[in-house]
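ARCHIVE CARD
Drawer: 12
Card no.: 0347
Subject: one protein chain, sequence and derived structure
Cross-reference: see card 0346
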Amino acid sequence: MESPRTDQWRTTAAWVRSRVQAHHEWFAQSLPMIASENLISPLSRELLASDFHDRYAEGHPGKRYYQGCRYIDEVELRCEELARTLFRADYADVRPISGTTANLGVLFALTKPGDTISVVNVAHGAHISSADFGAVGVRGLHRVEYPFDLQKMIVDVDGARKVIRDAKPKVAWFGQSVFLFPTPIDQLQDAFEEVGCAVVYDAAHVLGLIAGGQFQDPLRQGAHVVNGSTHKTLPGPQHGLVVAKPRDDKMRRKLDFGMFPGVLSNHHLHSMAALAVSLAEFLEFGEAYAQMVVRNAQVLGSALHSRGVKVLCAEHGFTKSHTLALDVAANGGGADRVEALEQANIIANKNLLPWDDPKKAMHPSGIRLGSQELTRLGMGPAQMEEVAQLIARVIVDHEDPAVVRTDVATLRRDFQSIHYCFTPDVAAYRYHKLVP
């Protein structure tokens, strides 16, 4: 006879499962527009629940500290090959379990505590990894920041060149979480060579756009290392990736050691397998997908602007990535408007703008939007016009979100399948049924 306590835990487990199911049902009726999220393909998702999840594989294929890795080794080697092919890289490490872990591993490899690193300021859109309270701080590095062009939302080239020459950083680090336009690293090559620094490009947000040939090509523009997460514009599992053109074997060995044993023990083998499928899918569909992501973002930016929403960089075409930055200070502020958008089932995030007080991160002026997930669901420019109208009704008109929510569900009804992937019967996979 089971005890009442056993029944309590069974009830708890059932409740957790019901909450996950409720989440899927909610998102099936929503417009997911968080710029750092995406949808994994049905085939990749299947591998996340495989026995690879339960295993250990410390070390390299063929040189493991554990037995039982025969097929794991085969998959990992193929995953590395796919990453090198996709990014035209000489080196690939598919073990990082997240973008931040990839950042930590690269920092562990190329720097020592007390070294100087040049970075983008978090207030200017950089990821928290480059802050004192992030990975850079964990490594004990001295930060110097590039001047930033607030009109163009990019690093100021002349100012960055001076910072690099004056500070002589061990590593020049680039990359942003609000990443509207390519970083002009090709124009800084003379400064890199003069001081002899390693150049690292955190491509977490734009990794898929780079792979699809739609943003910039850091490894051909002066970067030695490109790293990031694999679940944003690259629609794979929550995982990390490092690809590189190491300047010598010493850098290659350091990168390898920095990841293991530097910041990893076992890596997540199930997500590595899912990543291999995602990379193969991107080699097939990535260019078309990346083109549509950027096109959709630009159409959405223009449509929002025409409806009275203040979209940054209107004079520069709004964006060349998947991301749009909105200034909604005059409409109630970022925190207020994202809450209203969520009530309308439009999922976005509040975001600091460069002129905001960083101490008020929970009450910023801005909102960040991404086009990558709606694109993955098969939406195109025509739907972006409709999405802009729905967003403007909430932000500008302050319409009752409950009324807007009905129209959001109507739009979303015909966009439930995941596109740009291998599954032949993809239409049979409904978003809310991907997890049983």
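Annotation on reverse: Residues 426-436 have pLDDT under 50 and may be disordered. Residues 44-278 form a domain with the Aspartate Aminotransferase; domain 2 fold (CATH 3.40.640.10).
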